[in-house]
Write a structure and sequence with these properties.
By secondary structure, the chain is an alpha/beta fold. Helices cover about 50% and strands about 15% of the residues. It folds into 2 domains: about 110 residues, Rossmann fold (3-Layer(aba) Sandwich), CATH 3.40.50.1860; about 110 residues, 3-Layer(aba) Sandwich (Rossmann fold). The chain is globular. This is Aspartate/glutamate racemase family protein. Belongs to the HyuE racemase family. Pfam families: Asp_Glu_race (PF01177).
């Protein structure tokens, strides 16, 4: 068991990821001492390259190594586009290290939903999130399949307010044939403020990853979650 105030490092590719994650940790894991590391070119460089290059992977691994060397007892990457780097990092460092959305995916797959949508506003986040969800599915719910629908709305990323972002996301989901899904997963922390409005527009639960990650890291670092503390990702 780790001390009652563990140091959790969060690595961000956009500043909004930091604020969203901080709100989630304040709510779900207030005991944590949060250390924010930001490289605000990570996402832009991945977009320009159209993929995660070896140089970008090495850059993220250096940030993870810096956090571990600085005493981080748990780590969270808040940018879903870099999730695949975590698989390599776990072979190099033996501390709890979470991809942005995998805790949310575990919550979603453990539920009763058979048709789930994943939506994002940046192109790299869509295949990265869908791949993680598909990879987790056999381990979490081997008894039945899950259908995954993906949608992209780049307009949502530049929307002026959460309601406008939610409307863009809803349109993208409808265009992708996701009108009848049972739940929607937000593949980026920066979209979390749009979650409640999107849930109202679609009439289904909308989950985001930050709260679920905070709950999972709290359990890993300090023990089982107390009965009176929320244990699911944010949903509306």
């Amino acid at each position: 068991m780790i001390e009652s105030r563990p140091l959790v490092a969060m690595i961000h590719a956009v500043p909004t990821g930091a604020s969203t994650a901080k709100s989630a940790f304040d709510r779900e894991f207030p005991e944590a001492r949060v250390w924010n590391l930001l490289d605000d070119r990570l996402l832009g460089d991945a977009r320009s390259a159209g993929r995660l290059t070896e140089a970008l992977r090495r850059r993220m691994l250096r940030l993870i190594g810096h956090a571990v060397d600085g005493g981080a007892q748990g780590l969270l990457l808040t940018c879903s586009s870099y999730g695949e780097v975590v698989d390599t990092a776990r072979t190099l460092w033996h501390v709890p290290l979470l991809k942005a959305d995998e805790a949310m995916f575990r919550v979603a797959l453990a539920g009763d939903w058979d048709r789930i949508a994943v939506v994002a506003s940046t192109p790299p986040a869509v295949p990265a999130a869908a791949a993680q969800l598909e990879a987790l599915a056999p381990a979490v719910r081997s008894d039945r399949p899950v259908e995954i629908v993906t949608a992209l709305s780049e307009d949502a990323g530049s929307a002026d307010d959460p309601l406008a972002a939610a409307r863009h996301l809803a349109r993208a989901l409808h265009s992708a044939g996701a009108a009848d899904v049972q739940a929607v997963l937000l593949a980026q922390y920066s979209l979390a403020p749009a979650g409640p409005a999107l849930a109202d527009l679609l009439g289904v639960p909308v989950l985001d990853g930050a709260g679920a990650a905070a709950v999972e890291l709290r359990g890993l670092l300090t023990g089982p979650t107390e009965p009176d503390r929320p244990t699911t990702a944010a949903a509306s």
